[in-house]
């Protein structure tokens, strides 16, 4: 099957239908000799407490090792995601339409009903994705055997993600010495979701980004870049730094909710995804939020729930073509 037939029609015209070429540079993703990211060992969090604190303050992201996810699971997930994406667009549409998994592309901002939030100003983001609410995966019963085996892997993967997010969140709350109301569960792994992304390779030099510049709205994001193709970049000291994929490691981002909860001690990292001119890239992100109705309280921000935050983001994307985010909730004197 031609690669173009597997892509959503809206994206096809953006990519030239021509074989990958080595004539262009690979999209700013030269391998750096030394990995500059802070490295956190999940098995040794007690010992790495200061390192974790520093990483969240200084970088807003870190590389997680010793996370306990079997390497075979990470590799299978990647391989099967690739296979699912390479089905024809029509068969993906038939399998996902009307299901709990939302097949979407072009914009990362979705309404709660799963419709992409678009505006005239917005440029298309060159990706295709599946939005997977983990707690509802048992209600998804795909007929296609490849999609079913991917579903089974995601169920297994989701258990690890929820364990890892809980462990990291609890460590951060302890380090920050936060006085959270004990009756409320702040981190809601039940409402967390996975997004499986495919960024098609694209030789069209006029194309924008795989994913626009943004911060994540989550408490934490756990990104699996088992793929060898890079693309993720973070803004650091006013420069874009490529976050290279290193197999069997995960990238953890501090998101907006965590920045607010930490009273700006932690930093919701600004990032984007570049399009690769030679190869398509697959990545799998997990986003975890606060429980329904839980207010994030801090001295720098007005209290807000995640629903209120998401609603505001959607309104801003519709009105201005961009997310404004935490600044919307900041007390006036801090603006
Ligand atoms: O695909 C990636 O590497 C990053 C995706 C991302 O930033 C997001 O979904 O918020
Ligand atoms: Fe992101």
TrEMBL record:
Record's keyword terms, sorted: Iron, Metal-binding, Oxidoreductase
Fe2OG dioxygenase domain location: 190-290
Pfam families for this protein: 2OG-FeII_Oxy, DIOX_N
Signal peptide range in chain numbering: none
What is stated as this protein's family in its record? Belongs to the iron/ascorbate-dependent oxidoreductase family.
Record-linked InterPro entries: DIOX_N, IPNS-like_FE2OG_OXY, IPNS-like_sf, Iron_ascorbate_oxido_reductase, Oxoglu/Fe-dep_dioxygenase_dom
Q: Which domain of life is it from?
A: Eukaryota
Iron in keyword set? yes
Q: Name one GO molecular function term.
A: metal ion binding
Q: Which organism is it from?
A: Lupinus luteus
Instruction: Tell me the protein's name.
Output: Fe2OG dioxygenase domain-containing protein
User: Which PROSITE patterns does the protein's record reference?
Assistant: FE2OG_OXY
């Amino acid at each position: 099957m031609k690669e173009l037939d597997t892509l959503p029609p809206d994206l096809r015209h953006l990519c030239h239908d021509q074989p990958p070429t080595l004539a262009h540079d690979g999209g700013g993703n030269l391998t750096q000799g030394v990995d500059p990211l802070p490295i956190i060992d999940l098995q040794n969090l007690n010992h790495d407490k200061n390192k974790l604190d520093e990483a969240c303050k200084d970088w807003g992201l870190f590389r997680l090792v010793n996370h306990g996810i079997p390497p075979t699971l990470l590799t299978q997930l990647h391989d099967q995601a690739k296979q699912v994406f390479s089905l024809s667009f029509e068969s993906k549409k038939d399998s996902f339409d009307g299901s709990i998994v939302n097949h979407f592309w072009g914009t990362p901002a979705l309404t709660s009903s799963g419709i992409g939030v678009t505006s005239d100003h917005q440029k298309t983001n060159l990706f295709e994705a599946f939005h997977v609410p983990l707690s509802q995966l048992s209600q998804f019963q795909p007929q296609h055997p490849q999609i079913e085996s991917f579903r089974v892997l995601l169920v297994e993967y989701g258990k690890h993600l929820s364990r890892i997010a809980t462990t990291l969140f609890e460590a951060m709350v302890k380090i920050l010495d936060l006085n959270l109301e004990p009756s409320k569960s702040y981190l809601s792994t039940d409402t967390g979701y996975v997004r499986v992304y495919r960024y098609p390779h694209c030789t069209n030099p006029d194309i924008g980004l795989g994913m626009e510049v943004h911060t994540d709205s989550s408490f934490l994001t756990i990104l699996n870049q088992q793929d060898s193709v890079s693309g993720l970049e973070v803004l650091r000291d006013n420069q874009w730094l490529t976050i290279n994929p290193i197999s069997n490691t995960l990238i953890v981002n501090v998101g907006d909710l965590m920045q607010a909860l930490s009273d700006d001690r932690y930093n919701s990292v600004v990032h984007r995804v570049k399009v690769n001119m030679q190869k398509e890239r697959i990545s799998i992100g997990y986003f975890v939020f606060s429980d329904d109705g839980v207010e994030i309280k801090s001295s720098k921000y007005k209290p807000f729930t995640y629903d209120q935050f998401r609603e505001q983001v959607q309104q801003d994307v519709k009105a201005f073509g961009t997310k404004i985010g935490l600044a919307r909730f900041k007390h006036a004197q801090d603006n």
